[in-house]
Amino acid sequence: MAVREAEPVGSLQEVKEAGLDREDLLGIYRSMLITRGIEERGHILYKQGKIPGSFYTGRGNEAAAVGVGTAMGPNDVGTPLHRDMGVHVTRGVEPWRVFAQYMGREGGPTRGRDGNVHMAVAELGLHTMVSHLPAMLPVASGMALAFKIRGDRRVAVGWFGEGAAARGDAHEAMNFAGVRQLPMVFVCDNNQWAYSTPTYLSYPVEHIADRAAAYGFEGVVVDGTDVLAVYREAKRAIEKAREGGGPTLVECLTLRMEGHAVHDDAFYVPKEMFEQWAAYDPIERYRTWLQNHAELSDDEENEITATVKRLLNDALDRADASPLPDPATLEGGVFASQEDLDTPHHK
Amino acid sequence: MAVREAEPVGSLQEVKEAGLDREDLLGIYRSMLITRGIEERGHILYKQGKIPGSFYTGRGNEAAAVGVGTAMGPNDVGTPLHRDMGVHVTRGVEPWRVFAQYMGREGGPTRGRDGNVHMAVAELGLHTMVSHLPAMLPVASGMALAFKIRGDRRVAVGWFGEGAAARGDAHEAMNFAGVRQLPMVFVCDNNQWAYSTPTYLSYPVEHIADRAAAYGFEGVVVDGTDVLAVYREAKRAIEKAREGGGPTLVECLTLRMEGHAVHDDAFYVPKEMFEQWAAYDPIERYRTWLQNHAELSDDEENEITATVKRLLNDALDRADASPLPDPATLEGGVFASQEDLDTPHHK
Amino acid sequence: MAEMTYIQAISDALRLEMRRDQRVFILGEDVGVYGGAFKVSLGFQEEFGPWRVIDTPLSETAIVGGATGAALMGLRPVAEMQFADFISCAWDHLVTVAAKQFFRTRTPIPIVVRLPSGGGFSGGPFHSQNPESSFAHIPGLKVVCPATPQDAKGLLASAIEDPNPVLYFEHKHLYRRIKGEVPEERYTVPFGSANVHREGDDATVVTWGAMVHTATEAAEELAKEGVEVEVLDMRTLVPWDKARVLEGVRRCSKVLVLHEDTRTGGFGAEIAATIAEEAFEDLDAPVMRLAAPDTPVPFSPPLEKAYIPQVEDVVTALRELAAY
Amino acid sequence: MAEMTYIQAISDALRLEMRRDQRVFILGEDVGVYGGAFKVSLGFQEEFGPWRVIDTPLSETAIVGGATGAALMGLRPVAEMQFADFISCAWDHLVTVAAKQFFRTRTPIPIVVRLPSGGGFSGGPFHSQNPESSFAHIPGLKVVCPATPQDAKGLLASAIEDPNPVLYFEHKHLYRRIKGEVPEERYTVPFGSANVHREGDDATVVTWGAMVHTATEAAEELAKEGVEVEVLDMRTLVPWDKARVLEGVRRCSKVLVLHEDTRTGGFGAEIAATIAEEAFEDLDAPVMRLAAPDTPVPFSPPLEKAYIPQVEDVVTALRELAAY
Ligand SMILES: Cc1ncc(C[n+]2csc(CCOP(=O)(O)OP(=O)(O)O)c2C)c(N)n1
Ligand SMILES: Cc1ncc(C[n+]2csc(CCOP(=O)(O)OP(=O)(O)O)c2C)c(N)n1
Ligand SMILES: [Mg+2]
Ligand SMILES: [Mg+2]
After folding, report:
1. Could you give the residue ranges of the DSSP H alpha helices within chain A?
2. Please, is A49 exposed, middle or buried when counting C-beta atoms within 10 Å of its C-beta (0-12, 13-18, 19+)?
3. Which of A164, A174, C14, D47 is most buried, judged by most C-beta within 10 A?
């Protein structure tokens, strides 16, 4: 089974067929702006000393994240990673909670227990990553297993980087999902670097998607800066999984447009590489598409931009008003009690 | 890169080209007989209550093990498993030490510290397996890495079962070996069962060798009951690795002709499967080949059989004379001291 | 009541839980047609179908990680390790994901991992280990070590009901050796409550798992000499019944902490250290520990016998303690 | 002598070992061009070439398992974990293969795994852990926890020379904070020999890693009150210097065992239990333990401060002990 390389999305017609109306298209644009806005402001907060620890962004990956997030159904679940802020945003996490998370406040999804993008809101179908990559892939396959056991028409999406694809967890999850034909989609954020490690030192084949054949399912490589192409491929894979067609590996090719984290100037990335990929900024690319194909007017755009700006300003204020956690609460929360199980997402 | 399915070996000429003379051919026969003899006698010892713990054999896998063992060069190394007694035998382990190992005696390679086929003689280039499968694959890749670093013209052979192929260790080792083009051969003993688990519940593709493509190297499936075909394919892979051609995955297809271990009657294996594969007994098959192509006479055969019998009888006696370990020595041997490093195999 | 072996009690508990709660399912290597390496789930696949008794590939990470994911989706997975030793292959998923998830994000992970553990039959270094101490050190994991058929059944029900990751260590050497009267209906045994396996006032032995029986045999020996030893079966290590242990110390003033796992850094150290810290004034003798020496579990019978604490070893230790 | 930070001392030791012994090589994630996440091997690839400073894929199992194999072939691998936390992904290879191989088959596994560990800078649950206790419980592994630049250098040389698997825990919070005079030439610091970091007779604090400095600051506080506290830096946990600890107990009669890892089942329990067992008569007060509470390492500064033992916490504990 050869890897399929997905075509870019050309026309409005195509997207309509894939199930998106104009409102959706603008929603996608808004999500991408919010995603980048959160991370840009986070960067400033970090420089201001308001964010403890380290700080990671997904610059360059906004389209890949928002595209997949948009393709997920309301009851689908997933385990997004540190480049996937767009997934959280698309699924509806309130930006103030992200800032509160960054700043270690009570209002963040982990209430200051964990930091940076180690967070998710289970009610929105997202489950919190751990640092250890890609440990959430076996977990996501277990979610898909639960759906299969119960006969739910739900799909689990598991993310991993092209670097973390080298770890055994990726293999065990894919093999298990393949054997049991689980309703699952594996999304590889291939941003061409794993910290300072280039792809040829991470894997010896052309595409990570080449691996899918080793697990008996389909692999597809998509341009991760083309939000609509990502959406289309993710949608296809998700609906295939929902219909009992088993897993798909969707590889989104991008470039990590910043260092690994805020402390890293990425000196090891060739300058030309950055220059080349700067021409494919996912947001600019999509804005142009909207202008050309969906009649995005300047007024409309300005309004969206302004709304996003207001949203983020308010979010920052609200996050800053959220208290730091009380040290007296530190020891209480290691073990769950029965009541903690009776939550809607735990179904 | 598609998997190659290896042809059976037909003629004496072919084997000569692959580097075996008649003496070698008879040596292979002898090794196969010793291998089966050790395990058959082990079985009896077990039933007599002389072997503590459990007992495993590689019945049906003699050709695969002896074939690969024969293809290895004198300075090559490997990490054979519980179906690979033939590798130890071919590399020259003295049978009495195997019996001593089975019986937990001082004379066994692990001196009673470990049991059954958890043993190897490092001086012969073999390194002891652990139970945890396939943990020795990353270890074998590290051996190959050492050769690459030093520029040694040596090759490391790592074995794994088709069941254990599901574990992350297999993936990490193959990916690393692929990225670094290590001088290594991965040998899959595919005996179609992992304990009671059939292949379709272990992996979702036709051949384990299909996986090689995911790591950028060649995969080949060979009939594991055809000792000469196994030899030829292993030799090709080993010499390729030696010449800098990187890893190969050689999958030897057999049937595990007994239960997983002595306690298991293999009720879950369809009877027809056993019947079908009984026709391909590796030893009988090879004997017939020797008669047809290498003029093996009855006299010659009888002599070989008699020698093997004597060897094993003597081995049993010698093993039985080996003392049980002294409990007073239990605590001494956990940590190595400097002198323990100055051994020839540690080079 | 019915007489059951320890292993029958485990099967029984599992069957009852699966009958009463659709969310409970089993996954592991060879648990289906084969019924698991020790036949705990023999016949379960017929009764519950192939999607509640799932044969997995040989993938401990996929098993434990998969159980974690299924639990997040509301199921109650009971994962089987073929031998407790193989849990080392899923260590990361337990300590990194399952143990920390609730603290971090308040989504509980109600999973049970069944772990056939312990030595005594020449299983060698990889089929005999008692790795409970390693896990008891990790905040967020519960650790259960039943010693009797009654507790095996009741503690497994509690484990499945518990909203947290529970490591359930079932001692292989008790499987068919230990029998007892077990209620036929479902019941639970609470975590964190030690059981007085044998009464006594002269010294208390704090122990768990197979060593409960070793200690009891030793106590019977001592009784012949007029020394009455209490045997406290901890039953669970996380949580552990500190109050009851300290009470035993208060009453007996002499204590032996006994376990089958290796000595250095074993959970016995935690118990001994706690006693030394919180019952210092009650002690008439040093807190004594008896455990396996710091080596892998050896295969050969004379070595294994020297390795696992034997009745004689406990007797000797208790005599020494009594004489202090 | 040269003034070096703790992290410079580590680089220095590694560089000297690589210069004097061709068999020594480094492998790990981003150790090459990038010089490792903390820049310990910055410039090494230029000096030693790409085959002695090997960037691996993100594969902890391949790293540690691979190091094991290379060691079996006569090399001296020094593996770097990007953070100590990630060693959980190679747990199996350490405890199953490396730790047990020599006992089983007498082929030594001379590997070093470098583990940047410890908290204090909001690294959160996965970039702050101190997992040394988990490994100290496994027979066959050596565990090293330097607290000063001098020891960091000398212990790393010893670790590389040692014919066994050695876990070298380097505390990230000491990297650039702690400086000291370090001999420029190569030297070794023996394993199993505690260092008196501060002298005193009224109580002894047994500790290691970053806590040595916390304890010393606390001792300075106490000194103002006329209480002189000994600070014993264990330097290595396997082997640990029991004789020196017991001597401290004998002399001071009061002891505080302090560590940054979580309390229950931490290595402090082993030390406290040993003291309780072997120096019972020498004690004037219960053996006290101070450690992190049994939770994951929290991210947010006020929580992390409450989590990691602070100077004030040690002062309070020592006052309590002094008053007993
Ligand atoms: C098991 C594990 N080892 C090491 C790390 C440290 N680390 C964090 S991100 C990273 C690189 C990840 O690369 P990739 O998977 O490509 O994801 P990216 O960051 O590029 O999105 C590394 C090595 C980790 N998080 N997990
Ligand atoms: C990590 C691990 N999990 C479980 C086991 C228990 N076990 C021993 S052999 C075996 C089946 C192995 O199957 P395969 O790899 O096909 O090898 P075979 O025994 O068929 O040669 C299992 C599950 C093990 N040895 N290691
Ligand atoms: Mg990447
Ligand atoms: Mg098999």
Report:
1. 12-17, 22-47, 62-71, 85-91, 95-102, 136-150, 168-179, 199-202, 227-242, 271-278, 282-293, 298-321, 338-341
2. exposed
3. A174
State the chains in contact with A (3 or more Cβ–Cβ pairs under 8 Å): B, C, D
pLDDT in tens, D72-91: 999 999 999 999 999 999 99
D195 beta partners: D233
Instruction: For this complex, say whether ipTM is above 0.95.
Output: yes
Chains in contact with D via at least 3 Cβ–Cβ pairs below 8 Å: A, B, C
Q: How far is CA A178 from CA A84, A246, B286, C69, in A?
A: 25, 7, 38, 17
pLDDT above 80: residue B347: no
Position D185 pLDDT exceeds 60: yes
In angstroms, rounded to a whole number, what is the distance separating the alpha carbons of residues D150 and B54? Answer: 51
D307 vs A130, A202, A330: nearest CB: A330
pTM above 0.90, yes or no: yes
Chain-centre distance for alpha carbon D114: 10
User: Which residue, among A256, A283, A281, has the nearest Cα to A270 in the 3D structure?
Assistant: A256
CB-side neighbour CA atoms (13 Å) of D245 = 31
Cβ neighbourhood burial of D179 (10 Å; 0-12, 13-18, 19+)? middle
Per CATH, the homologous superfamily of domain B4-198+240-319 is Thiamin diphosphate (ThDP)-binding fold, Pyr/PP domains (3.40.50.970)
Give, as one character, the DSSP assignment of residue A21: -
Question: Where in the sequence of chain C do the CATH 3.40.50.970 domains occur?
Answer: 2-182
**Is A210 in contact with A3 (CB distance < 8 Å)?**
yes
Q: Which residues of A touch D29 (CB under 8 A)?
A: 194-195, 197
The CATH T-level fold of domain D2-182 is Rossmann fold (3.40.50)
Q: Is C52 helix (H, G, I), strand (E, B) or coil?
A: coil
Residues of A in contact with D125 (CB under 8 A): 113-114, 118, 131
Q: Which of D22, D29, D59, D111 to mutate to test the interface with B (most CBs of B within 10 A)?
A: D59
Nearest CB to A112 within list D61, D123, D298: D298
Q: At B253, is the secondary structure helix, strand, or coil?
A: strand
Centre of ligand 2 to C-alpha A172, Å, is 15
List, in order, residues 6 or more apart from D124 with CB less than 8 Å away. A53, A114, A115, A116, A118, A131, D297, D298, D299
Partnered with residue C113 across adjacent β-strands are: C79, C167
Residue found under tokens 């892979």: B237
Judge contact between A84 and A65, C-beta under 8 A.
yes
* Amino acid letter, B345: H
Q: B62-71 vs B282-293: helix axis angle to the nearest 10? A: 60
D277 lies within 8 A of chain C by CB? yes
Beta strands in D229-278 (DSSP E): 229-233, 236-238, 255-262
Residue nearest to atom 19 of ligand 2 (CA): B194
- Confirm if B52 and B102 have CB atoms less than 8 A apart: no
Local structure of D164: helix, strand or coil: coil
Sheet containing strand B184-190, strands side by side: B4-5, B218-223, B248-253, B184-190, B156-161, B77-79
The whole-angstrom distance between A93's CA and the closest CA on chain B is 34
**Residue A344's pLDDT band (cuts 50, 70, 90):** low
Is residue A193 within 6 Å of ligand 1 at its C-beta? yes
* CA gap D206, D230 in Å, rounded: 8
Determine the Cα–Cα distance for residues A151 and C49; give it in Å rounded to an integer.
Answer: 14
Using the structure block, give the residue that is written with the tokens 């012949």: C224
Q: What's the CATH number for C195-323?
A: 3.40.50.920
Q: Which residue of D has its CA nearest to C283?
A: D280
Q: Say how many C-beta atoms besides its own lie within 10 A of residue C33's C-beta.
A: 17
Residues A265, A7: contact at Cβ < 8 Å?
no
- Indicate which atom in ligand 1 lies nearest the CA of residue A161: 15
